[in-house]
């Protein structure tokens, strides 16, 4: 079994390695060069993470719990000006107005929207629940086709302009990457096989919730796409992934065909991509979509609370598979809303529809009235992306 601490060693990139491989095989010489350069940078940062554990240590950016009456967002946006060194030039700090640089302002708004979701809906003080300052670094590298969370900061490339637009363009990508920090801090999911796919899925879930709340969309109105707007106009596709219909996000001569399954019968067994963490995340992604749309209303409320409580459940093991996570979500639904209700039924039905039959463990579940699940409006404190 993998050591529980290994979950902190992964570099969490929004663009999966199999996409970069497809570009290297099928793209033009310039596109291949950009893909290979991006892969080299990603591999370097992955290696660096093996000797660091940023969220396991208290940093100067943290605000000690109990020392502040209210939560407060602290954002800093740096421009690395096409270089690959940090921190770069500080160009926008908390409370300052828009700069006119789209990447800077999109990063600022995306960090704020993610922070607002966690605090205003789930009562979480930043991604570590201790007031972690949110730092973003934009204009990273030359034609860098990715965005990543490295345990300390968000980093965004500008894309190559032919296959990918700038990586700050999609607010759910920003929410996705920051949510990796929350999972690292809260849920000990190793970044491998089904546990890694759950790790990726949690980021897609909360990234999508950030987007839906910023747009004030109910579950039935949301597009359930991850990274809409990120693909350049020449690409045959809508986004990087579809939570509603995994496997349909793109089908392009250069990028290839979206490989995500939406049902366990199509589960992909591979050693690539840490055992298919970006591929098989389509299965729990669709389960969440089904729960949210069956319950209706705003997805960040009941469905989001169930998934958030499941992430924080002490029964969530480092090597948790889909079946165990399904049981934990069912127990969370019962704990929050009562056994046998609409929420309980929606969770059970959703997992059954994706081929993960769920049964309740013999654990006494006390009913706890839900907190903060009433309809809430999107924040007006910050510009919407």
Automatic annotation (TrEMBL):
<keyword id="KW-0964">Secreted</keyword>
<feature type="domain" description="Peptidase M4 C-terminal">
    <location>
        <begin position="189"/>
        <end position="356"/>
    </location>
</feature>
<keyword id="KW-0862">Zinc</keyword>
<comment type="similarity">
    <text>Belongs to the peptidase M4 family.</text>
</comment>
<keyword id="KW-0645">Protease</keyword>
<feature type="domain" description="Peptidase M4">
    <location>
        <begin position="76"/>
        <end position="184"/>
    </location>
</feature>
<comment type="function">
    <text>Extracellular zinc metalloprotease.</text>
</comment>
<dbReference type="Pfam" id="PF02868">
    <property type="entry name" value="Peptidase_M4_C"/>
</dbReference>
<keyword id="KW-0482">Metalloprotease</keyword>
<dbReference type="InterPro" id="IPR013856">
    <property type="entry name" value="Peptidase_M4_domain"/>
</dbReference>
<dbReference type="InterPro" id="IPR027268">
    <property type="entry name" value="Peptidase_M4/M1_CTD_sf"/>
</dbReference>
<dbReference type="InterPro" id="IPR001570">
    <property type="entry name" value="Peptidase_M4_C_domain"/>
</dbReference>
<keyword id="KW-0479">Metal-binding</keyword>
<keyword id="KW-0378">Hydrolase</keyword>
<dbReference type="Pfam" id="PF01447">
    <property type="entry name" value="Peptidase_M4"/>
</dbReference>
<dbReference type="InterPro" id="IPR023612">
    <property type="entry name" value="Peptidase_M4"/>
</dbReference>
<dbReference type="InterPro" id="IPR052759">
    <property type="entry name" value="Metalloprotease_M4"/>
</dbReference>
<protein>
    <recommendedName>
        <fullName>Neutral metalloproteinase</fullName>
        <ecNumber>3.4.24.-</ecNumber>
    </recommendedName>
</protein>
